[in-house]
Amino acid sequence: MTPAPDNHHAVKKVVLPSGKTIEIVYFADSDDAAVRSTAPEIGLHVCPECACELVYPEAWEEAGDTAWELQLRCPNCEWHDRGVYEQPVVEQLDEHLDNGTQILVRDLKQLMHANMQDEVERFIVALRAGHIWPMDF
């Protein structure tokens, strides 16, 4: 009698921009677990070389049903690394990056508002001083 093959698999549903849903079936290999590495306790966003908290992924691709292969970069010391990380670790990095993006967008809006306010005040001063003429437009 031949042993039954290991049919361990997982299904992931992906919704395409068109609205269609597709299912991707992953079959786990026995070598899969050996490739996976774990994230440092401090998080993937922290550089192990210089402790900068600005590490971000330059490239990523799925590496099985519950793992991602990431190419990480530190903009401070130019540290680079490639590793395979479990889904929860990658989700923590993604959450950290989302929070950073929200902070940047908030700061950008404040800066845009301050710049516009400054431009309006300078325009009013120039207008009152008679430095603006109809032919300027």
List the helices and strands and how they pair.
Elements: E1 9-15, E2 21-27, H1 32-35, E3 56-62, E4 67-73, E5 80-86, H2 87-128
Antiparallel strand pairs: 1-2, 3-4, 4-5
Structure description:
This protein is an alpha+beta fold. The protein has one domain. It contains two helices and five strands; from the N terminus they run E-E-H-E-E-E-H. The protein has helices at residues 32-35, 87-128, and strands spanning 9-15, 21-27, 56-62, 67-73, 80-86. Strands 3-4-5 form a three-stranded antiparallel β-sheet, with helices on one face. A hairpin with a 5-residue loop joins strand 1 and strand 2. The longest helix has 42 residues, at 87-128. The model is unreliable at 30-36 (pLDDT under 50).
The neighbouring-strand order within the major sheet is 3-4-5
Shape: elongated
Segments where pLDDT lies below 50 for 5+ residues? 30-36
- Share of helical residues: 25-40%
User: How many domain regions?
Assistant: 1
**Major sheet summary line:** 3 strands, antiparallel
Q: Name the beta content range.
A: 25-35%
Assign the structural class, choosing from mainly alpha, mainly beta, alpha/beta, alpha+beta, or little secondary structure: alpha+beta
Q: Could you tell me the number of beta strands?
A: 5
User: Nearest-angstrom radius of gyration?
Assistant: 25 Å
Number of helical stretches of at least 4 residues: 2
Average of the residue pLDDT scores: 83
First-residue to last-residue Cα separation: 90 Å
Output the helix-strand order.
Answer: EEHEEEH
